[in-house]
Amino acid sequence: MNMDKIRIKDKVFRRYISKAEIARTVKRLAQRIQEDLKGEQPLFIVMLNGAFVFAADLLRAMEGPCEIDFMRMKSYEGTSTTGKVDLLQPLHSDVKGRTVIVVEDIVDSGTTMWTLLHYLEPYKPKCVKIAALLLKPKALRHDIKVDYAAFEIPDDFVVGYGLDYDERGRNLKDIYTLTEEGQTDK
Ligand code: IMP
Ligand code: MG
User: 25, 55 in Cβ contact below 8 A?
Assistant: First the structure.
């Protein structure tokens, strides 16, 4: 089915980035990262839940040795950030001396990534880089560097390709953005 508009619970979203554009851009990003990682044995930390679709495509578009582990942090309720970050699943891998690439769905205020960087610091990784599917530059409130961002987007709420609205919409193939009609009843 080819849907330009979708409804999730009380909100209406319109298609914003197509699956074809996502596929092209993620592939290009994977090539860039692979080029930069030549000779390294990187550890990728995939941030659950949102990054699972992006990570699956990004990591399969790369060749060469790589290890993958998962962490879970949560800061969002509905369509806005709570401002605090809960660690729901800690990291099990040893990051000491490792080149770490964090794979994240979206960097919004940057609070989650800022918290993660401080969490990893005492374990002494060689370096930590951030690869995000989406970046909202206008929403960023922390001094962090997003080394790789597939798309920069305005400060609007999006779903699909792993991202959710109240746990819905993660399996959408395209990325959708919230419309003004968002507040209509069911
Ligand atoms: P930050 O800590 O404010 O940078 O927010 C990052 C986290 O909030 C992401 O990992 C997402 O899980 C969630 N998030 C931020 N913006 C959106 C959005 O537009 N749609 C869905 N989830 C979002
Ligand atoms: Mg997330």
Answer: no
Could you read off the pLDDT of 108-149 as tens digits, one per residue? 999 999 999 999 999 999 999 999 999 999 999 999 999 999
Res 85: pLDDT: 92
Ion ligand 2 — residues with CB under 5 Å? 50
74-100 pLDDT, tens per residue? 887 777 877 889 999 999 999 999 999
Q: What is the pTM of this model?
A: 0.95
Look at the chain and count its residues.
186
Q: How many CB atoms lie within 10 A of CB 163?
A: 23
State whether the beta carbon of 163 lies less than 6 angstroms from ligand 1. yes
Whether residue 174 is predicted with pLDDT greater than 80 in this model: the reply is yes
What CA–CA distances, in Å, run from 84 to 51, 99, 105, 107, 109?
Answer: 19, 27, 18, 15, 11
Residues 6 or more apart in contact with residue 2 via CB below 8 angstroms: none
Residue 16 to residue 177: CA distance in whole angstroms: 6
Assess contact for 29 and 146: CB atoms under 8 A: no
Tokens encoding 78: 């509905």
Order of all β-strands in the sheet with 148-152: 80-89, 67-77, 43-48, 99-107, 127-135, 148-152
Residue 108: active-site member = yes
